[in-house]
Amino acid sequence: MTRAISVAVAIFVAALSLLGCAANGGGATGVAGSGAAGTGGNTGTAGTSGAAGTMGSAGTGGATGTGGSANPAGAAGTTGAAGTGNPAGAAGTTGTGGTTGAAGTGGSSGGRGGATGGRGGTAGSAAGAGGRGGTAGGAAGAGGRGGTAGSAAGGRGGTTGTAGTGGTLARFSFFVTSIGALRTLSGSQNGFGGDLRYGETGDGAGLRGADKICAAIAETSMPGAGAKGWHAFLSAPATATTPVVNAIERIGSGPWYDRMGRLFSANLTNLMATRPTDADPAIQNDFPNENGVPNHSDGAPGCTGNSCPDNHDMLTGTGTDGKLYTGGNTNNPTCSGWTTTVGSAGRPRVGHSWPRGSTGGSAQWMSSLDEAGCAAGVNLQETGGPILSDPTVGSGGGYGGFYCFAMTP
Question: Residue 137 domain-assigned?
């Protein structure tokens, strides 16, 4: 259609030239052709190459003037301007670049054991294909970075709660092992005797077993108290792999309280006396068992009215300085580091949980005398001292009990 219009215009111009009056009798000057500019090609749609624009037709030359002197040849019609638009059709619209993959969700904060970090974002889809004739789409979006893995043990982001110090437990950090508790744990009416390993093996097993016994009894009396760090007040000789162990160095620095919350002693200085100098008067001369009951008084096992058992001898293997006993003519004062029940294997050193008042006996709680032997045995009757013919840990008045101290008040 555009081409037809251009031809019509050219014919019209030629007609006017033929009708014009010439100056000085010459032919009229031919009108310059003015071919219409070719319409530009349509812009290529995205993805499809634009069709090339049609070239404008050349302008038709002016007709020669008639009559008179010949006019100079009509000037050649101006060449129609090139069609508007891209001579070869505009390039298709550039394809849009692939969307960059979203970043991976970060790892959730570690809970117990830390959660695994979030998986990385999926890589951006491949570049969008460019439109036909258009420039290819941008490169694929880079994949999102993976979330940081939650770290183990309370993961980052959630600070691990600090363990409660003693939690809401009442003060309870000292007791005498009762005969009832030792009979229950040992499975014998005679108790453990001089062997306190309680399932432990190797060097130092006697002390480790005794500590376990303390913790088990404490837990029975007060749920949760078994975790307070209990140590038996026992000394032990050196072995092939362990040095000498002194009871006073195993129990911390105080303060210590009985099951009822009464002060037993505030520190080592006050503790290392014949009787703890600052102990509550109710328990100073009759140390309490795990139930808070003074071990030689009404309510104690075997005690009725004023007829109470003679249960004062407590295993320590320790001198009055709180260290391994080395005095006198004693033989093996710790029953081989608390690992034997052979009666003749030794004569364990004991202290008195209450003064043996009826015979003027010693009130020293850490170190009073040597028992008759290491065999398991119970004697709750007043006999006046250890009976060598009965080589047990309780022949002089006891059952092989011992003291327990906790590192946490």
Answer: no
